[in-house]
Fold this sequence. Notes:
The protein has 15 helices and 6 strands. By secondary structure, the chain is of the alpha/beta class. The chain folds into 2 domains: 2-55 and 335-344, Nicotinate-nucleotide-dimethylbenzimidazole phosphoribosyltransferase (CobT), small domain (5,6-Dimethylbenzimidazole Phosphoribosyltransferase, Chain: A, domain 1), CATH 1.10.1610; 60-329, Nicotinate-nucleotide-dimethylbenzimidazole phosphoribosyltransferase (CobT), large domain (Rossmann fold, 3-Layer(aba) Sandwich). It has a 6-stranded parallel β-sheet with strand order 3-2-1-4-5-6, sandwiched between helices. Helix 12 (265-277) links the parallel strand 5 (260-262) and strand 6. Helix 3 (38-50) packs across helix 14 (319-337) and helix 5 packs parallel to helix 14 (319-337). The longest helix has 21 residues, at 145-165. It starts with a helix and ends in a 7-residue tail after the last helix. The model has no long low-confidence stretch (mean pLDDT 96).
Amino acid sequence: xxxxxxxxxxxxxxxxxxxxxxxxxxxxxxxxxxxxxxxxxxxxxxxxxxxxxxxxxxxxxxxxxxxxxxxxxxxxxxxxxxxxxxxxxxxxxxxxxxxxxxxxxxxxxxxxxxxxxxxxxxxxxxxxxxxxxxxxxxxxxxxxxxxxxxxxxxxxxxxxxxxxxxxxxxxxxxxxxxxxxxxxxxxxxxxxxxxxxxxxxxxxxxxxxxxxxxxxxxxxxxxxxxxxxxxxxxxxxxxxxxxxxxxxxxxxxxxxxxxxxxxxxxxxxxxxxxxxxxxxxxxxxxxxxxxxxxxxxxxxxxxxxxxxxxxxxxxxxxxxxxxxxxxxxxxxxxxxxxxxxxxxxxxxxxx
Length: 351
């Protein structure tokens, strides 16, 4: 816990002076004021995050945390838990959607086993297994408090290693059959919203299965009684190891003033926990997209974040965040590479 508390103390507010200079520059670029819309606001926000007047995002990474969930034994997913390890292999072989979209964005993909039940062997895998999946949260806590903290530490360590290599922009990704169940539980508890309002179909379950999923989550919350004022308690009671890992990534990135593009519902749940731990983290978050999962919009509204994209995605993996990285780069390129009126010798009197 001390490491988490220590890193929180290093998270500082955005650089307001740099943001004012960025706004002034936007007014001098060869365009009508505000004509690039949210791209202008995004560029200004990132200037504030980084403290750099002309930031670049040439060095990008998508960190995909993978883990299994004991609650799948309750039949809350359309897929069995063995698919988690199978998809991890797919990521490592370069055959998944996140690989294609990360390549488009020019981002490296970092795959981390923080809690996959099956032993995955691959030279490119970061094996940081805290446990072989979580326990069934419907009948007891998903994790011990110590396991939740250890998983957060994994995320912190993984980001720190990427920071040492050089990173300007990070995206969060996930893999874990059953993780929308955990994310729904976290969202319900931390936002005070009824379970039925934040629970969606995940991998594509039918109406009967959805009703059962809601009942399982309600049972888990009733049984474990997570304290909404203690986000780490909520994470341990009804969360997931990969969600905890992403909490660590987000905290460490904010501490190093690196912008974080969050993906869908699972990344959103991790962001929610991180912001509850340290409200200042919110200033370093960029909502890549809004998922069709009901709870994701609730999270974004709760955090006051407006998504860059709405493509009706529900895959996870970091796919929406990887696409959004291209928009982030576009915002910064226009901010840095457009000429000012003076440089272009263009009159701005009519603009």
